[in-house]
């Protein structure tokens, strides 16, 4: 929505942006010199710019006085001479988003830039800051463990800076370092966390460090966990990710907007359609594209089917994690039904590439509605069968009930999103709290857990499948006729920046895109839900028994494509 | 006379067994891994053809299915796993990424094809390949196993069987 539109609606009746304006003005009042601008972008979204020295104070004030308790992400945008350092905060009580931006100057060469850490304010900043350090070379002073997180540790460059091309070579060879070119067995050895190196050697004697991964059947992909064991108890854990870092963000800067359409599928290959939606929604906001009503309904149907198949995949892998192979086969069997629907709609089974700016690729085929109704009926019937091998099975309950309890305070502080956060009793669902598309027209519940244990996180998925089935039925009933594709730009996207929020099966996913009016984005940041959920899982493993650690990790449903991007 | 000649009957049985019970390394990296799982699940059920009894350990596996994009961080691991597998071993490169880098070609952390790291026997195209395509690729491996034993049948006894050669500049 443009500024004019929002201003004109504000004049009419009661001001819908009253809360946002109060927050923006109170920030401006608290920091009259430090906060340069404070704008309301649209409903539930504000953006402020402040000077670098005051950033930490602004974050502290936002958290303690204004209730922004959830850190969504930290990222940077390279403008050649300086970085825009972006902190994205969210308030679960007020349901508003705040973007704090600050400028950090950097030299021509690829040299590290220092900036104070915000881990003292938000604990979730830990991994986000490591990621920014890894890809941009901003060193956060005071961070407890400033190591590379995604790239191999023998990298010397920071490839998301603009002075590197897409292959990681400096455009001017004098200014930067080339990437490593070899892959011998012992290359890229991992370093230990700083805390482990400083440990007392006497304690060291009784501790076993156990590695599992990156090739391990229970880590859901190439991920490595290094556990410090005292007997059977994990006293500290380090999760190594980045084995599937496919450079989606650099790719975003090197392709045109429309060329990027197939890539969100591959960001999270278990729930591709929700991620397509996240990307398409961000670009639509930037370009001000209107989406026809029929297209919105088609999108809802496809996204909810996508959620069903993604959660069925979770039901399958949850069985796999505790040796319940029947569940594994059953989950994949039901998932096939939804994949067949994908194939019916767009020709591809798994990665459909179905959404377009302003609509969808093609209309729903003949017979789709009947077939979909049959499929959701079948899935609903099969959920009953699943309950006999899962939540009504005493052997399964032993591993899930009361194990891996996450308190609501920790869940928020560590930045958890999605079913895991809701299992801890916090009813935060983007579809309800920040409704996008036509979700406000459907009648559905947000399931919330009581205990925050493994079983609650498991049951969230089962309940969400039931809710999704209900949404699909309602949407099929109300499906309007009309065009399925609106008017949309092909090449040039207006200057500006936008971010989308979508409730993906693993939590809130978002794309933060910055355009300077050229056919290619200046920056495309993917906010991954699984990334921060794995961080939460890592914190949760500490104090647990070794055999429970992988089950806990599994209940967060990690998908490595989304974690590493 | 070759030792294999003396043991011709045994070799026939080994060949028959190996060909019809391929044990791939359960080695999912990215999107293709999901299709690989789906290949082993009920609809396609590659196990009824004796070809997808996935093993978690490279020491028990005959075939490595590289299912996904190999990054520079992952490449040393792939290489190590390959070298831990016992002879005779075969490699299937599943999907566009493992074959050539696919949609992620020419990016800073992506290896442009797993054949830069380990030798590949069969390439399965697709992004990701359908389960049927993977089954076809594994049937090609069965043909290769036939050829492998025929080729080595009359070789003189010289210690171990020859390993496939690797690009010298990249070997570890």
UniProtKB/TrEMBL annotation, chain A:
Residues 50-169 form the NADH:ubiquinone oxidoreductase 30kDa subunit domain. Keywords: Cell membrane, Membrane, Multifunctional enzyme, NAD, Transport. GO terms for cellular component: plasma membrane. Residues 483-505 are annotated as: Disordered. It is found in: Cell membrane. Gene3D superfamilies: Cytochrome-c3 Hydrogenase, chain B, NADH:ubiquinone oxidoreductase, 30kDa subunit. It is a peripheral membrane protein. InterPro entries: NADH_Q_OxRdtase_suD, NADH_quin_OxRdtase_su_C/D-like, NADH_UbQ_OxRdtase_30kDa_su, NADH_UbQ_OxRdtase_CS, NDH1_su_D/H, NiFe-Hase_large. GO terms for molecular function: NAD binding; NADH dehydrogenase (ubiquinone) activity; oxidoreductase activity, acting on NAD(P)H; quinone binding. SUPFAM superfamilies: HydB/Nqo4-like, Nqo5-like. Signal peptide: none annotated. Residues 322-490, 491-565 form the NADH-quinone oxidoreductase subunit D domain. It catalyses: a quinone + NADH + 5 H(+)(in) = a quinol + NAD(+) + 4 H(+)(out). PANTHER family: NADH DEHYDROGENASE [UBIQUINONE] IRON-SULFUR PROTEIN 2, MITOCHONDRIAL, NADH-UBIQUINONE OXIDOREDUCTASE 49 KDA SUBUNIT. NDH-1 is composed of 13 different subunits. Subunits NuoB, CD, E, F, and G constitute the peripheral sector of the complex. NCBIfam families: PRK06075.1. In the C-terminal section; belongs to the complex I 49 kDa subunit family. This is NADH dehydrogenase subunit D. It comes from Candidatus Marsarchaeota G2 archaeon ECH_B_2.
UniProtKB/TrEMBL annotation, chain B:
It holds the Pfam family Oxidored_q6. Residues 31-141 form the NADH:ubiquinone oxidoreductase-like 20kDa subunit domain. It comes from the Archaea. One of its GO terms (molecular function) is 4 iron, 4 sulfur cluster binding. InterPro entries: NADH_UbQ_OxRdtase-like_20kDa, NADH_UQ_OxRdtase_20Kd_su. GO terms for cellular component: respiratory chain complex I. Keywords: 4Fe-4S, Iron, Iron-sulfur, Metal-binding, NAD, Translocase, Transport. GO terms for biological process: aerobic respiration; electron transport coupled proton transport. Belongs to the complex I 20 kDa subunit family. HAMAP family: NDH1_NuoB (MF_01356). This is NADH-quinone oxidoreductase subunit B. It comes from Candidatus Marsarchaeota G2 archaeon OSP_D.
